[in-house]
Structures are given as structure tokens and as C-alpha cells.
Design goal:
Layout (H helix, E strand, L loop, with lengths): L28 H13 L3 H10 L4 H12 L2 H28 L9 E2 L4 H9 L5 E3 L7 H5 L2 H8 L3 E5 L16 E5 H11 L20 H5 L17 E6 L4 E6 L4 E7 L2 E6 L36 E5 L4 E4 L4 E6 L3 E6 L21
Parallel strand pairs: 1-2
Antiparallel strand pairs: 2-10, 3-4, 5-12, 6-11, 7-10, 7-12, 8-9, 8-11
Helix pairs in contact: 1-3, 1-4, 2-3, 7-8
InterPro entries: Cupin_8 (IPR041667), JmjC_dom (IPR003347)
Pfam family, one: Cupin_8
Organism: Variovorax robiniae
Length: 360
């Protein structure tokens, strides 16, 4: 992966009320930080100088800042750590190339039946996504669940949803500030009559299935995928409901899970965890990239990343392997059921270091 791509320079500072005619752009903390970042990334002094001069900084001043940063012992130590990071990134990129040698790499298999042994070896240990198509035939949910059924059976109960998401592109990261409690009947009416929207959504964070009033939903779940521990179903499952147009933004989970589509369709876009260095992951498990409208100028490392895509139909279940990035869009009014009760090491086993890059 290239290490000499200059990152975006800081925004110009607000001008002072009065500036002498010959004044140049002042050196701010943001510019000093930018120079330090470029030095650690391995960018050349010439390339940095060009950017700074084009931004209006005096060339002599810029040269002094750059030369001082190149010899700064803190930056030297940072460069050494970046070199170690580059080795890790190159190892991941090489493994990704091996995965992509498989001509079927970008095809997500749809299979009606998989044994426990094959599921464990081929998909869990092999870290491959899979769509199961056969195990929900005996689910009462497939015959019963609908918005109107939800309203009839649970309309009097309160539920936690996410609301007012349109106004905040970070609605997933800031999900706590978007929590609202509404009556199920009112929310069903809003979803049915409101048309396509990403402004409101009953997501996995609602914890509905831990409430006694929603326990009948669990009675509607029949045969589980291979290797699932049914005794853990109520504690490790979630219910989803929303209109067409809801989007779960690009992120990865910290465990493996199944997601069964009961009503409506969802389009899943997935990216290998080995591609993480190219997804600008600077905030916990989230990427700022929108796969529906990728901005390659802002995120140039995204170019060439292989994106897998599959539409999950009613009755189908997607298996999400460990660490796979995914962005999900509902194509219809959607009722879904997700669960992580896989009878293998899963919950509270895998350890991720989540970056939170401090903005100065």
C-alpha cells in the first residue's frame, strides 16, 4: 500500500479583520500537525513544501517547519512505529491477494443445507460469508410476521427506536442521542405510511427481546442454522423493523452472527477484514465511507477494494464471519431477526483495539 500519499491539508484559518497586504497564510497548530503526519507517512519534503506554498505559506517559513519536523526525535520515533504498521498492512494485503485468486471470491454462496462440521471448517474457520436458504421453512414467523401482526400483538407496548437520523450523518456513532421511545402501534403506522426513509429505524439496540412482553416473537423462531445453541437464543438475538431505505452504515462487528430476513429484502455489501487499512477506520468499528456513493477523491485507498454484494430474500439467512465490514440497505419494508448464539467461541472472546483518533 502506498505510504507517500499526501493527506488532505487543513482548512484555511479564518482571516483576521485586517491583514497587511504582503502577509502570508499563518502557521497554525493544524498545519504543524499536518506536517508531522506527512513526515511519519513517509512523504517527501518537496511534496509537503509544494502543498504549503500553494496554500499561501511563505516558502522559507514552510521549509523551516518541515526541516525541524524531519529531525524531531518524536517524529523519528513515530516513523519507526509507522514502519511496523506498514509491515502488518502489507501482510494483510498479501493474504487478501491470495483470497482473491479464487475465481469465486466475489460470489457469496447460497446453500440450502450445510452440516455443522462443514460450516465450522469452511465458513467459520475459513472466514467466508454464506447465505442459507433452507432452514426457515418451519418458522412460524415466515407465515405470521407482518407490520399489521406486529401492531395487533404488540401495539400497546413501548419500544426504543432510532429517530431523526437524516440530520446527522454519524447517526450510528451517535446512536445514543437518537434514542426515542414510542408505542409499537404508532411506529408501525409511521413505517407503513411514510414511504422509503432512513430517518427512523427499530434496530438491534432496542433490546426488545429481553422484555417479557415481546417474548412471543421468540416462539416464532423455528430451526436454527448449523451449530447454534438454542438455549442462548433469547439472550443473544435482536429484532429489526423499518421502512425501505434504512441504511446501516459501513462498520464491522466484534463477533460472528446470523441475520435472517423474514419480511422484505435487504442488500448487503461486504468487505474483507484484510482490507481494513484501506477503509479509513479512525473511529471504533466505523468507516466514514458510504458504499452507495463512494468518494474516491476523499478516500483514494478505497480504489481497488473488492466489494461483495448480495440481496437477502425473505426466508434467507446471511452468516457474517468475524470482522467483515458491511453496509446494509433495506429495499422494502423489512422485518429481520439477528442472532449470535453460535455454539463456538464468539461473544466476549475476540479482542479488538478500536482506534479513536483525537481531532485537535
Amino acid at each position: 500500500m502506498p505510504s507517500t500519499i499526501l493527506s488532505k491539508p487543513p482548512a484555511p484559518p479564518r482571516p483576521a479583520p485586517v491583514l497587511p497586504p504582503a502577509a502570508s497564510t499563518p502557521i497554525t497548530r493544524e498545519w504543524v500537525r499536518w506536517v508531522a503526519e506527512q513526515v511519519m507517512r513517509g512523504c517527501t519534503p518537496v511534496s509537503m513544501l509544494e502543498v504549503m506554498v500553494n496554500a499561501g505559506i511563505d516558502d522559507v517559513v514552510a521549509s523551516v517547519i518541515i526541516e525541524g519536523m524531519v529531525s524531531n526525535p518524536i517524529c523519528v520515533a513515530g516513523e519507526q512505529q509507522v514502519q511496523l504498521l506498514r509491515k502488518l498492512e502489507s501482510s494483510m494485503a498479501n493474504l487478501q491477494q491470495l483470497w482473491e485468486l479464487n475465481p469465486d471470491y466475489q460470489t457469496i454462496e447460497k446453500r440450502a443445507d450445510v452440516s455443522v462440521a462443514e460450516f465450522a471448517s469452511r465458513y467459520v474457520e475459513g472466514c467466508r460469508p454464506l447465505v442459507l436458504t433452507g432452514h426457515t421453512a418451519d418458522w412460524p414467523a415466515m407465515r405470521r410476521w407482518s407490520p399489521q401482526d406486529l401492531k395487533q400483538r404488540f401495539g400497546h407496548l413501548d419500544i426504543e427506536i432510532q429517530a431523526e437520523r437524516h440530520a446527522n450523518p454519524r447517526y450510528e456513532q451517535d446512536k445514543l442521542s437518537h434514542r426515542r421511545h414510542v408505542r409499537v402501534a404508532d411506529f408501525v403506522d409511521q413505517v407503513v405510511s411514510g414511504g422509503a426513509s432512513n430517518d427512523y429505524y427499530l434496530t438491534a439496540n432496542n433490546e426488545a427481546l429481553r422484555q417479557p412482553g415481546f417474548a412471543p416473537l421468540l416462539d416464532d423462531i423455528g430451526t436454527l442454522p448449523p451449530g447454534c445453541d438454542r438455549s442462548q437464543l433469547s439472550a443473544r438475538s435482536s429484532f429489526w423493523f423499518g421502512p425501505a431505505g434504512t441504511v446501516t452504515s459501513l462498520h464491522h462487528d466484534k463477533l460472528m452472527l446470523f441475520h435472517t430476513q423474514v419480511v422484505g429484502r435487504k442488500r448487503w455489501r461486504l468487505i474483507s477484514p484484510l482490507q481494513t487499512p484501506r477503509l479509513y477506520n479512525t473511529n471504533a468499528v466505523f468507516s466514514p465511507i458510504d458504499l452507495d456513493a463512494p468518494d474516491y477523491d476523499r478516500y483514494p485507498l478505497l480504489r481497488g477494494v473488492k466489494i461483495l454484494e448480495v440481496v437477502i430474500e425473505p426466508g434467507e439467512t446471511i452468516y457474517l464471519p468475524l470482522g467483515w465490514w458491511h453496509q446494509v440497505r433495506a429495499l422494502d419494508v423489512s422485518l429481520s431477526f439477528s442472532y449470535s448464539n453460535i455454539g463456538l467461541p464468539n461473544n466476549n472472546v475476540f479482542d479488538y483495539f478500536d482506534p479513536v483518533v483525537r481531532q485537535v
